[in-house]
Amino acid sequence: MSVHPLAPGHEPASSRQTTVGHVDVLDAWLGTVARPGDAPVLLADGGHAIDWNAPACPAELTYDTAEQLLPSGVRIVAREGNRRLMFEARAYEVMLRVASDRQSQQHEVAGQVLFEGLPLPGATVRLDRSDPSAAISTDQTGQFRLPPLVHGAYGLKIAVEGAILMVPPIALQ
Questions:
Q1: Among 33, 58, 88, 163, which one is least packed by beta carbons within 10 Å?
Q2: Distance between CA 143 and CA 121 in Å, rounded?
């Protein structure tokens, strides 16, 4: 796990001003496409122990393209049924891309974890309701991809140094 403690001096996301650098990072991520070979590695017996009872840090929804337009200057090409979400918790950002496949009735959720605007490798991600052993780690660019999901509401727990980021449930329909 990377050493990026939750610093008490960081204010909640709602009070932070968006800067050009912040938008550039977001724009760069939105333009990336995860490839099958980029899937993160599942934690195995040799993985580090995660304290899932560490202090919880709720993440707040900053935007959801299903409910609001992206900020001016941020452009994406999206298929029908796709959406982008961004959550913030202190100095952390969790960006998610949700893609729906109507034929298989499954959803793909891929994301990226950032700390102070930079990718956070080695953070551990799992579905809120899943077995802790079913966790995955973010890769060197802070990205992760969950296994295909069926309709339902899913929250995420993300283990970072000294805390668990709690992403509220996202309805997949």
A1: 33
A2: 8
